[in-house]
Amino acid sequence: MPPITDLVVFALALAAAGVVSGLLAGIFGIGGGAILVPVFYQVFGYLDVPEAVRMHLSIGTSIAIIVPTSLRSFTSHRKRGAVDIDLLKGWIVALPLGAILASVIAAMISSVGLRLIFVVISLGVAARMLFNQPHWRLGNDLPPNPWKWIAGVVIGTLSGLMGIGGGVLNNTFMTMYGRPIHQAVATSSGVGVLISIPGIFGYIWAGWGAAGLPPLSTGFINWIAVALIIPIALVVTPYGVKMAHAMSKRHLEMGFGIFLLFVGARFLYSIYG
């Protein structure tokens, strides 16, 4: 067991991650999972959580934290009238279905496989955001069903495999079809709610009875980390929302792209470093 001073340091690191994830939830409409998953991976590794379940535990715990941060972000954005409620209603089955599929896949995939999924999606979306051109569009409005519904399932599945709230992918999806980045960010907060709630139950099921999990874990969710981060993230999320509405479209895209590059590089290092 690590010395108490080291545990305090890591508790402070988790608290700092809570601040960052809360701001990100507000600024980008995401649940903050893209920063929490790498932090959890390091902390759980230091606590000697086996490699076989460490990434799974990191993702499941992140999903649990996304529920309240996404709800807080969604209510703040909705008050400003920026959320596409019709799109969320159309995805009320598709997104949870994708999240459940993700937990089934996570129960069968390796830690390295999960990290590679994280890297590929993060770097792909980062390239699109950083080098975005006006003609990089698939259409002037969202596609009709069944394509829009299928997109919801895909977003739910990939987000569930990354431990994120879907903002990373939904922001890309909506902007590629001509929607303003601010509307995409606001709507993504609702996407996070629809993915994370079923995701909690999925990751509890996927990790039920797994060996090597730390104390106070239910399946692939560690409630100590959840309890440390949620209160902090809830306090700072509304400040992130204010920042998002004060920033220009290009500033949002550039900030989002740089952030995703950092995340992708971090996980590449964890695999090959």
How many structural domains are formed by the residues? 1
Overall pLDDT confidence:
84
Main sheet attributes: strand count, strand direction, barrel closure: 2 strands, antiparallel
The residue ranges in which pLDDT falls below 50 over 5 or more consecutive positions are: none
Cα separation of the termini: 25 Å
**Share of residues in helices:** over 70%
> What global shape is seen?
globular
Overall SS class: mainly alpha
Order of helices and strands: HHHHHHHHHEEHH
The value of Rg in angstroms is 17 Å
What amount of the residues lies in strands? under 5%
Strand order of the largest sheet: 1-2
Question: How many beta-strand runs?
Answer: 2
Outline of the structure:
By secondary structure, this protein is mainly alpha-helical. It has helices spanning 4-28, 33-46, 51-79, 85-90, 94-106, 111-130, 147-162, 167-176, 181-206, 223-246, 249-272, and strands at residues 217-218, 221-222. A hairpin with a 2-residue loop joins strand 1 and strand 2.
Description:
- The chain has 273 residues and is mostly helical.
- 76% of the residues lie in helices and 1% in strands.
- The chain is built from eleven helices and two strands.
- The protein has helices at 4-28, 33-46, 51-79, 85-90, 94-106, 111-130, 147-162, 167-176, 181-206, 223-246, 249-272; strands spanning 217-218, 221-222.
- Helix 3 (51-79) runs antiparallel to helix 9 (181-206).
- The longest helix has 29 residues, at 51-79.
- The two termini are 25 Å apart.
